[in-house]
Amino acid sequence: MTQAGNPLRNALFIMVDQLRWDHVGAYGRSPVPTPNIDRLAARGTRFDRAFVQGPICGPSRMSYYTGRYVMSHGARWNRVPLSAAQLTLGDYLSRAGIAATLAGKTHILPDTEGLDRMGIEIESERGALLREGGFVPFERFDGHHKPDHLSGYPAFLRQHGYPGDDPWADFAISVTDDAGQTQSGWRMRNVHWPARVAEPHSETAYLTDRAIDFLRAPGADRWCLHLSYVKPHWPYVAPAPYHAMFRDTALTAPVKAQHERTDAHPVVRAFHQHEESRNFGDDAIAAHVRPAYMGLIAQLDHHIGRVLDALDASGAASDTLIVLCADHGDMLGDHWLGEKELFYEQAVRTPMIVVDPRAQAQATRGKAVADMVEAIDIVPTLLDALAVPGDNHRLEGRSLLPLVHGQSVDWRDAVFSEADYGFRQARLTLGRAPGECRGWMVRTGRFKYVEWEGLRPQLFDLQEDPDELYDLGASAANGPVAREMRDRLLHWSLQRKTRSTLSDEQVALRTEAASKHGIFIGFW
Predict the structure, then answer these.
(1) CA–CA distance, 237 with 265 (Å, rounded to integer)
(2) Which residues, 6 or more positions from 402, have their beta carbon under 8 angstroms from its beta carbon?
(3) What is d(CA 90, CA 403) in angstroms, rounded to the nearest whole number?
(4) Residue 464 has pLDDT above 90, yes or no
């Protein structure tokens, strides 16, 4: 932990689902104006090279919440339970009496098998906390399926005139076509029509309302609010007027080349055959969907402004660390792909902004930091700012506060991410067993290398080919670079913190301590 100034009292941890870094104005390339996120960047430090540990919701978020790489926490894909043995942000904060309060999505699936083995009832106080990954739900809403009993959104919709058993599906993510018929927002052909809810009743507005409710009455002397927005993740349905805000905007062409289809890596070729990629690979379909995605971002930005205004009005802003990040990006047709899941910059590179209101952060306020940072750095950063001890033998990330405070530190020169397509059609296309579908990425300032289990690697020269159009992994001429990058990957994998049940300090105390317990090994 850093020792700069008094600790902060509170933390506002904002995560956005599926937000591309190049769709935030402060990064200089966005087709969407984001004045409120930019306002946050002006108040804090913008990290220009931030990367997630997995290019899909579940693994990425588990790394955000544990401060550990996917290899270490084991939740390799969506709906893979996070082991009850893994400590999360909420576990650490509870040591200081701070609750990690949730408004929104976590994607955490409870480890029911582990809880049963330990004899912990899932509905007990401890079981409920473990079920939620250490978070205390103020409002849990995942935004991909019918909201459960932890969400007040269905009741909210009914109160505002949207009836039915599942008003989220019937109204929030449905549209009315020109013939007056209700159509599903799950079908991307329908996203040019507005959602069947008024904007103040939409998902983003509702979560913002709930966050503001909390900020006005946090109910504790110190607090941490995890505000986790479900949009602009699909279904790409935006309420009026955001659904049409960018419909007539001239869009840049998708980043792709024809040879990427004909000479694709086997895994990429298999993903090209997925439903979402076949559709997004059609330029007309991508051009139809992207304005809705942009509208959802514009709406998100408006409501983030409301949150910042509420925080300022509460008087807590001067004592609150703010983090804004995303769990991954969105391919949107780039490289002939939909969704995310592979290691292109559009998926693994994300926005990350840290606002430290203390004077020590003045050196980087409103500026960009080029050091390579990772999702696993967020838990150590939050703990550092709040002066809550972490576990060095578990946490694999590093506090960003030295960088935020403008200090000269020995920092990493590579970032790492992991994938597992064992749950996807690509596995069947390639004829591979569920345990043979792992991929690992190492990215330096110049090169990106991807090791695919049982298949040839990928290699990109980001200096010569920043758009990642030319995969050099099959080129013998690039063998020395590939071997060097593979060595980096091996070295990284050997450094994972697998002794998670005993701290370094405990190991030091037990070193050569056998004789103290009457055990004399090998004495003459």
Answers:
(1) 33
(2) 2, 409
(3) 24
(4) yes
380 close to 71: Cβ distance less than 8 angstroms = no
Taken in order 364, 369, 371, 374, is the CA torsion positive or negative?
A: positive
Contacts of 38 (CB under 8 A, 6+ apart): 24, 25, 26
Angle among Cα 387, 389, 390 to the nearest 5 degrees reads 130
| Measured distance CA(345)–CA(347) in Å, rounded | 5
SS (H, E, C) 2-16: CCCCCCCCEEEEEEE
Over its C-alpha atoms, the chain yields an Rg (Å, rounded) of 23
Pairing outcome for strands 447-452 and 438-443 = antiparallel
Q: Of 5, 29, 8, 19, which is closest to residue 329 (Cα–Cα)? A: 19
SS3 406: coil
Q: To which H or E segment does residue 452 belong?
A: strand 447-452
Cα 116 from Cα 384, distance rounded (Å): 34
Tokens 């200081």 label which residue?
A: 96
Taking a C-beta distance cutoff of 8 angstroms, is the pair 319, 8 a contact? yes
Residues 6+ apart with CB under 8 A from 322: 11, 12, 14, 40, 43, 44, 311, 353, 354, 355
Q: Torsions phi, psi of 175, nearest 5? A: -130, 165
Residue 350 has pLDDT above 70, yes or no: yes
What string of H, E and C letters represents the secondary structure of 82-103?
Answer: CCCCCCCHHHHHHCCCCCEEEE
- Amino acid letter for position 27: Y
- For residue 167, cis peptide bond before it (omega within 30 degrees of 0): no
**73-77, 128-132, 408-412, 451-455: least confident range:** 128-132
Report helix, strand or coil for 410. coil
> E strands of 17-69, at which residues?
45-51
Q: How would residue 3 be classed by pLDDT, with cut points 50, 70 and 90? A: very low
Q: Are 311 and 404 in contact (CB under 8 A)?
A: no
Phi, psi of 58 (to 5 degrees): -55, -60
In one letter, which amino acid is 470? Y
Distance between CA atoms of residues 354 and 287, nearest Å: 33
C-alpha span between 104 and 151 (Å, rounded):
9
Assess contact for 143 and 107: CB atoms under 8 A.
no
Query: Hey, CA dihedral for 21, 24, 26, 28, is it positive or negative?
Result: positive
Phi/psi at 467 (nearest 5 deg)?
-90, 0
Q: What is the maximum span of the chain, computed from C-alpha positions, in angstroms?
A: 95
Whether the model clears a pTM of 0.90, i.e. scores above it, the answer is yes
Type of residue at 425: Q
Judged against a pLDDT cut of 60, whether residue 4 lies above it is answered with no
pLDDT tens per residue across span 117-133: 999 988 888 888 888 99
